[in-house]
Amino acid sequence: NLICVYSKKHMNDIPELADMKKRANTRSLKEMALLL
């Protein structure tokens, strides 16, 4: 099961995607917390 986390360095490369990436990171971290 692959979990994708966007790095903060590249978070704002494309401003339109920054919000989506932040949400994806939050979701990924919750998934990881459940798996550990």
TrEMBL record:
Record InterPro entries = G3P_O-acylTrfase_chlp
Gene3D superfamilies (UniProt xref):
Glycerol-3-phosphate (1)-acyltransferase
What SUPFAM superfamilies does the entry give? Glycerol-3-phosphate (1)-acyltransferase
Molecular function terms in GO for this entry?
glycerol-3-phosphate O-acyltransferase activity
Q: Which domain of life is it from?
A: Eukaryota
Task: Cite a single GO BP annotation.
Answer: phosphatidylglycerol biosynthetic process
Q: Which PANTHER family match?
A: GLYCEROL-3-PHOSPHATE ACYLTRANSFERASE, CHLOROPLASTIC
The identity of this protein, by name, is Uncharacterized protein
